[in-house]
Design brief:
It is found in: Cell membrane. It comes from Candidatus Faecalibacterium intestinigallinarum. InterPro entries: MFS, MFS_dom, MFS_trans_sf, MFS_Transporter. Its main location: membrane. This protein has 17 helices and no strands. The longest helix has about 50 residues. By secondary structure, it is mainly α. Helix 7 runs antiparallel to helix 8, helix 7 runs antiparallel to helix 12 and helix 11 packs parallel to helix 15.
Length: about 400
């Protein structure tokens, strides 16, 4: 039964990734049909992000009342409805309307699933599950491409993924009895936990630092992914076609890196995996500063590989930092911080690129990395996950 439930959770993580890459891949075919500027994709993206932030902040209450299985099933069903709504929308305002349940469906399930896995499974599964999210992000654009190539339009791509989400909802409903596992580490404490208000969760020792570290991670990941191709074209002098192919290596690095990290995290632990990822990002950003084509290409691969262990390791470390009884509230808060990072920081670099130069991308990434490192280490010390080093005289 344990392995069967784990398989269901793996499917759920694929479903999390399926909608995330749809808008970007379908928008070149969508905006002309709706008669709106290409920049209007940002409006839809911001509505989705806002909904995700709201549902993440309320995930503790929802999961406490309904349980992680029901929250996951309801959220996937809500996403399926929103995707179908996209596929039948005839005007831009309809897309904005359906973007609300699109975002609300994503935040709660993300927080609930991550917390459940952090409490009940080894850290290697967290890495592999987030690898499955990467698989989902790769499948979505291919389905859109297949629908367009077949002359069926982007609508059929959205409709197909909506039906896939609906089928997964049925699987999740039938799997609800499997979520009632007994005897797992931390389960008794988690079952007896008191729902925390946002103020209470934010004032826990180390909470603000942990949220800021997650904010920085997602800001770095999304900024690198969004602006990689532009950096290669405007700063590296590559053609748009070659730059697009090279920028895709960043996402391949994340997905492949998470598959690899699953074999390493048991031996190294969450703290060391986060530090290792940050060191690899540092090497990748430094490579981007070099005026060589190979160095730039390797730089984005390294940044992707460095990103791979950080997200799953921060999530998996949350119960150890704050206790199983508080982990759902803290993961919801961390998720909200992550989505705020994705909402604000990539557009901020867009302003820098427009008014100064895109060549500042590596320095921008390094600045975010420095803050992330400082905040993560502070959270480790305050929560007791890492003990401060003793002075030399005291050790003697």
């Amino acid at each position: 039964m344990v392995h069967l439930l784990l398989g269901v959770i793996y499917l759920a993580f694929i479903s999390l990734g399926l909608p995330d890459s749809l808008l970007g891949s379908a928008w070149p075919s969508m905006y002309g049909a709706f008669g709106v500027p290409v920049s209007y994709a940002g409006i839809i993206s911001m509505i989705i992000s806002a909904g995700t932030i709201v549902s993440s902040l309320n995930s503790d209450r929802l999961t406490s009342r309904l349980g992680p299985g029901r929250v996951t099933a309801c959220s996937v069903a809500l996403t399926a409805l929103a995707l179908f709504g996209f596929s039948v929308s005839g005007q831009f305002w309809m897309l904005c309307l359906w973007a609300v349940p699109y975002g609300l469906g994503a935040g709660s399930v993300d927080a609930a699933l991550n917390n459940y896995v952090a409490l009940h499974y080894a850290s290697r599964h967290m890495s592999w599950l987030h690898c499955m999210w990467g698989v989902g992000t790769l499948v979505g654009p291919n389905l859109i491409s297949y629908a367009l190539a077949g002359g069926q339009g982007w609508e059929m791509g959205y409709r197909t993924i909506s039906l896939m989400q609906l089928a997964l909802t049925a699987v999740l409903v039938f799997s609800l009895p499997l979520w009632k596992r007994q005897g797992a580490a931390g389960e008794e404490e988690a079952a007896a936990h008191e729902v925390l208000t946002l103020r209470q969760a934010a004032h826990l020792p180390g909470a603000k630092s942990a949220v800021l570290a997650f904010f920085c991670y997602c800001a770095l990941e999304q900024t690198a992914g969004l602006w990689a191709a532009s950096y290669l074209v405007l700063h590296g002098g590559f053609s748009a076609e070659k730059a697009a192919a090279m920028a895709a290596l960043f996402y391949i690095g994340i997905t492949a890196g998470r598959a690899l990290c699953g074999f390493m995290t048991g031996a190294l632990g969450d703290v060391r995996m986060i530090r290792l990822g940050q060191a690899v990002i540092l090497a990748g950003a430094a490579a981007l500063l070099l005026p060589f084509a190979f160095a730039m290409q390797a730089g984005f691969v390294l940044v992707g590989l460095g990103c791979a262990p950080i997200y799953p390791s921060i999530i998996h470390a949350t119960p150890a930092r704050f206790g199983a009884a508080r982990s759902q509230a803290l993961i919801g808060l961390e998720m909200a911080g992550a989505y705020v990072g994705t909402l604000l920081m990539p557009p901020l670099f867009g302003l820098i690129a427009e008014h100064i130069t895109t060549s500042l991308l590596p320095l921008y990434l390094l600045a975010i990395l420095a803050v992330m490192f400082a905040m993560n280490e502070h959270a480790n010390r305050v929560t007791g996950l890492v003990r401060p080093a003793k002075p030399a005289r005291e050790r003697a």
